[in-house]
Amino acid sequence: MNKKTQDEKAPGLALAELLGEIEPELVEESSQPFRAARRSNWLNLYKGLAAVLALALVLSCSSLAWAMNELKQGNQEFYLRALSPELLALDEDFSPTEQPDKLFAALAADDVYYQYIAINRLVELYNNPEQKARAVDALQPFLQSEEPKLADAAALALDILQENFQDSRLCHMADGSIFFTLFNDYSDYGSHNQIWRIKDGRLEQYTGFCEPLNYVRKLLPSPDGRLLAVELGSYKSNFVVILDFIDGYCSSELVGTSRALWAVQLARQGQDGRLADIRSDHETYCSVDNLRWLDNNTLAFNGDFAYSHTDFFDSVQVQYNYRTDEYLLSAQE
Amino acid sequence: MDDEGIVALLWQRQESGLAELKMKYDRLCWQTAHNILAAPDDVSECINDAYFQLWQLIPPQRPRRLAAFLLKVVRNLALKKYAYNNAQKRRADFVLSLDELAEIAPGGLTPESELDRERLPVAISSFLHRQSRLNRQLFLRRYWYFDSVAEIAAQSALSQGAVNVRLCRLRSDLKAYLQKEGFDV
Lengths: 333, 185
What we know:
The complex is a heterodimer.
Chain A: H1 3-19, H2 24-30, H3 35-56, H4 61-74, H5 85-89, H6 100-108, H7 112-121, H8 129-139, H9 148-161, E1 171-172, E2 178-181, E3 191-192, E4 194-199, E5 202-208, E6 215-221, E7 228-233, E8 238-244, E9 249-250, H10 254-268, E10 287-293, E11 298-307, E12 312-321, E13 326-331
Helix pairs in contact in A: 3-4, 6-7, 7-9, 8-9
Chain B: H1 3-11, H2 15-34, H3 40-57, H4 66-84, H5 92-102, H6 114-129, H7 133-143, H8 149-156, H9 160-180
C-alpha cells in the first residue's frame, strides 16, 4: 500500500480510534448474542422437544407448559427507545396517504421495525375506503405474530380500521369523537407523542407534543367526556395537560405550574430555599402518579417535585380545576 | 471468577488477578486484536501489552465493566500497532471497514482535534441509543469489534446482503445525525 492510500485511510482510522471512547454499556451490550439468533435456538429447542413428545406419545401438561414458558422467554420483544423521525418516515419525504404502497412494502419486509412502523402507520389510511380495506387484509396475519408488539399493534389497527372501536385504549368522548395514540407503549417510557382523533368518520392528527414531552403515558377522559387529560413523559420527568377539544383549548402544563406554586406556598410558610430550576434539556425530575378525575372539571394526581438541583424532593397532592383554573396543593401523608 | 472478584484482586495488586483475567478474557482479546492485526506475533504482543497496561491502570481506576474496559485497551493498542504496520501486515476486511468508516468521518478529524475527540464519541453514543438493539449490535460488531460481514451474518441469522444494507443505512443515518450535530461530515 503506497503513501497516498495510507493517507486515504486516515479519516477512517481516526474515527475508529474515537469510536473506542463510546459508552462501555454499548460495547458490553453489543458483545451479547444477537436476539434473532437466540430466537432461532429456542425454535430448535421447541422442535426437538416436540419430536421427543411425539415419539413418546405422551402429552405431559407440565412439560408443555415448561416448553411454552421457555419459548415465551426466548421470544423477547424487540426494543425501541425512541421513534426518530427517520425511523417513522421509512423513507425520505414519505407520506402514507400519498404513497401507501411503501407501507405495504414495509409490512412485507423481513424487518420487525419496518413492520411495526408500517402496522401503526396503516391506520393513517383510515380516510381512504379502498386502501383501508387493503390494509385490513394485510394486517390480519400479524394478529398471530410471535412478536407481541406486532400482534398488539395489529389488533389496535384492525379495531380502528374495521370501525369496531372496542379497544380499551380508545377514548370515546362526549361529542362522539374518539381519541387515541399509535405506537402504544412502544418503549418502556410510553407511547408515541402524537394524538389522533376520529370525528364524523374522519381521522385527523389532533395534536402532537415536542421534546421533552416525548411519550404519552396515559389518556384519561373526564367523567362527562368533555375533557381529556394527557400524562406525558420524557426520560426523567412527567408532565400533564388537559385538552378541551370541544372549545379548542389546552391547559397550561400542570406539573410545572403546581411545582412552582408549591415552592411559593412553602416559602410563605417560612420554608425557603426551593428553587424550581429547569435544566437546559427541560428535565425537571418531577414525577406523576395516580392521575384521576375527581369530578367533571377537577383533575388530581400525586406529584413528586424536585427542587434546587434535586436537593429537595416533595411529595405533593395536586387538585386542579380546569374551569376555574385553581390549584389545591397539599403534602402527601 | 466474576468480574468484581478479578477487579478486587487487581486492586490488591495480586498477580492471581491477572491470571484470572487471562483465563476469562484471553480468547475475546485475541479475537478483538486479530480482527485488526493479521500477524499472530502482533496480536500476542498487543494482548500482553494490554494486560500490562491494565495492571498499571487498576488501581487507581476501578472499572465497573471490566470486559469493555479491557477490550477498549486491546482495541486501542491494536489500532496503534496497525497504524505502524505496512500494507502486507494488514487484514483486507479491516481495511474495508475503515473505508466504510471513512465515508462518515468528519473532515479535519485528527487525533489532535481535542474538541472532536470529546464530542464525537458522545454524539455517536447518543445516535446509537436511538437505534434498535439489533442495529446497535450490527454497527458495533462491525466498527468496534471489526467482525467481518460474514461473521456478523452468521451470528445474527441475517443474510450478508441484509447486514450490508443495514450497515449502509446506519452509516447514512449517522452521517446525517453528525451533520445535524454540527460536525463537518
